[in-house]
């Protein structure tokens, strides 16, 4: 039977018409039944063209040159297998963890909140009493005492006016300290980081960086003045400090330098950085307490044309104080700034 089939194929140059009209896809190894006794299989040879052969028996083994045909299950399973993507080596951090890390960095830079034993009622009481005492002592008590004695500030010489300003500033500062002591005495003893003065610590570098901010504060002063210029109807008057500088009285200039470079920084830093800033950390973050206390510090100078530079200067001094938990660095920076302004007036 095999010889008859081979003889028939040798005489026929091509496949029968019924077989040639079959569509054979390009998938290798796919079987297509022709009849009960025939099948067509694709031969996987190394030649570029595929060769086909007709087997006379259903269970005839393929030759060594032709590999075994794939089954339908293998083909479908191969098509259904999806490529495996490489998993990322690192997992991205969510925004909450990033925010916590940023908050930790800020806390390390500016320090942690203080332990505040009093409430907002005490904070408001101290600040209101300090403002009232500052106004009462400087505008009423000292002038009234001078009037009783028989003189006024305007009738004094440059040196007398400088001494008058020094005594007024000292009286205002002592009144503020007395109010602080009276209002906070019931909370004693206070924690060790309250109203702390110390020469120890690595705070000199912070003060040096703060001094590098002085040109920026000066630029902000000019910007603030351009933003809110003086009204044309506002009379231009010279202060007693400027008058003594113009007169070139060395004693008067020395007394005024003592007022602006020593007395004012001490009193203001005790109130705004020593008391107000740490007290606010009970109700808000440290950075927000620095900003709020700086705004209060600027408002206490009653000068709209100097708001922006004073706020910025208050922020710088607040950061230095929060980092060191020490009033001495902020007092030193405040004193250096006032001295810088005083020397600028002497030009």
UniProtKB/TrEMBL annotation:
Task: Give any Pfam family that matches.
Answer: Rce1-like
| InterPro entries associated with the record | Rce1/LyrA-like_dom
Q: Name one GO biological process term.
A: photosynthetic acclimation
Give me the Gene Ontology terms describing cellular component. Answer: chloroplast
Any one Gene Ontology MF annotation carried by this entry is: endopeptidase activity
Q: What is the annotated signal peptide range for this record? A: none
Give me the segments passing through the membrane. 122-142, 253-272, 284-302, 308-324
Q: Which keywords describe this protein according to UniProt?
A: Membrane, Transmembrane, Transmembrane helix
* Segments forming domain CAAX prenyl protease 2/Lysostaphin resistance protein A-like: 255-339
What's the protein called, per UniProt? CAAX prenyl protease 2/Lysostaphin resistance protein A-like domain-containing protein
Record the organism: Vitis vinifera
**Source taxonomy lineage?**
Eukaryota, Viridiplantae, Streptophyta, Embryophyta, Tracheophyta
